[in-house]
Structures are given as structure tokens and as C-alpha cells.
Amino acid sequence: MSTEYTVTETLDVKGESCPMPVVKTKGAIDGLSDDEVLEVIATDSGSMSDIAGWAEATSGVELLDQQDEGDVFKHYVRKTQ
Amino acid sequence: MSTDTSDSPETADGSEAKSPIDAVDAPEDVTAAELAAEVEELREELAELQAAVGDDQKSMVIVSTKGTLDMAYPPLILASTAAAFGWDVTVFHTFWGLDILHEEKSKNLKLSAVGNPSMPMPNAIASLPGMDSMATKMMNKRIADNGTATIEELIEVSLDQGVDLQACQMTIDLMDYDENDFHDGVTTGVGAATALQRMADADVQLLV
């Protein structure tokens, strides 16, 4: 699931747990322009499933990549449309 | 039974039967151009209908009836997450659920030590004075340590994202609360009919 992209903005939600990583990701995506990419850095292990599920069910966003680095989980979401 | 049914559409005589189209509206001298125009008009209508039906805007209504710390979380977590999905969300608070929206009470929601089999103490001890406060303190410490959002924070993000947090008017009066006791942005002056009307149109309806 690796594509070429440039990160526009980074959202740090380390230490925060459900539902904040998803809620704040949505808020940050709203502030981006089309085709820009948001990097989300979380420590909540549930964010792997939650952000993927959110991106799947939400129009106007595309999940580009997710990385499990053990203690940190990184998510890359592109704003579409 | 003297009625002559020979030229009714229901006649058994196939050659005489009118097609359903004739029965509705289609004079024989209609031209191809007129038919084409009518087809075009129908296509436009169909496209409009499909657009209306295909609208994937989902909505959810949660009825929140409990005011303990543990029962305050699920409705607010689901509401704020659904709003992040772009759903149209209403949470209708009634009875002790009102305390979640109450500016003062929402800061001090309690956990009950009694009747909770998950508590590491028997009910005989849990019912002693001060045990609810102790259980609540322990839970609040866990919430802080885990980085779990507070009830205040969840109310704030929910309202920011356009969740309609409603306080049932009948129970506001019943519990002797004042409409100004609630967080800014909370909808008051609503009742069961408002909740039902939204539930009838919603994709997800939950009672907590």
C-alpha cells in the first residue's frame, strides 16, 4: 500500500485515545486543500483499524498508507475531490 | 349483468385490449418528436429521483438516559466519531442523561461502586459511605493516565462538529433544572416527538 506522496501537514495525536485520533484527523483534513496529504502520528493501537475504517466510510478522503512502528502508528490520508 | 364490457381494457379478447400506455395518456397522433421530448423529460425526472435516493448522507440518533461516568462515554464517543464520518448526528438526553449536558454536573459525573460486578469489592463494602467517590477517583485517574478524553472535551468536539446535543424539555422540568444550566450550544425545548421524527429518518438509532 505504498504510493508516492508528499506530506503537506502533520497531526500529532500521540497519547490520545479513541475517539480523538479519528475526530482530530477529520478536523485536520477539513483544513487541507484537494490532493494535499495529512500525516497522522498516533500511539493508540486502535488507530490502525479506526482510521482505516473512517477513511473507507468517508467520502473525500483516501488512505494512502499506514505504518506500524511498534510504539508509534503513522497514517497518511489524502484529501480528494 | 347487462353492462357491455367489450371495449374495456380488462376484456379477455386480446385484439380489443388496450395497452396500459393507451389507458394512461397517449393519443394516437403523437409524433416521434413529442415522444422523444417526453422520454427526455422522464429521464430528467428519473435522474433527480436517483440523486435523491442515492444520497449517502447517513444519520444517527442516540437516546442517552444514564448520567453515570461510565454511561456518559459511549454516546459521546459514538456521536463525535459519527460526526467525523460526516454523519448527521443527534443525541437526545433525557432523565439522568441530562447530567451529561449540565455544565456543573458534567464535571462531576460519578461511578457507582454498587451493583457493578467488575468492581474489585463486594457490594456490602461498596455500599459504605465514600465508596462511590473512591471508585470515581480511581476511574478519573485511569482516564487521565490513558489519555482518554474527558466528558467536557467530548461535548466540546461534538458540538464543534455539528452534533445536535438535545436536552429533553419534560425531564428538564421534572428534574427542576434550568435551561441555562446546560452547555452553550445544547438544544432545549424538544420532546419525544422530535426524537421520534429524527429516528424515523435515521440510519442508526441507539438507546443508551
From TrEMBL, chain A:
CDD domains for this protein: SirA_YedF_YeeD
Gene3D superfamilies associated with the record: TusA-like domain
Top-rank taxon: Archaea
Domain UPF0033 residue range list: 9-79
Organism (species): Haloprofundus marisrubri
Protein name, per record: UPF0033 domain-containing protein
Family (UniProt): Belongs to the sulfur carrier protein TusA family.
Pfam families in alphabetical order: TusA
InterPro entries cross-referenced by the UniProt entry: TusA-like (IPR001455), TusA-like_sf (IPR036868)
From TrEMBL, chain B:
SUPFAM superfamilies xref list: DsrEFH-like
Alphabetically ordered keywords of this record: Coiled coil
The organism's taxonomic lineage, starting at the top: Archaea, Methanobacteriati, Methanobacteriota, Stenosarchaea group, Halobacteria
Keyword Transmembrane helix: no
Gene3D superfamilies: DsrEFH-like (3.40.1260.10)
Protein name: NADH dehydrogenase
Region (Disordered), start-end ranges: 1-27
Species per Swiss-Prot/TrEMBL record: Haloprofundus marisrubri
Regions annotated as coiled coil: 32-59
Pfam families: DrsE_2
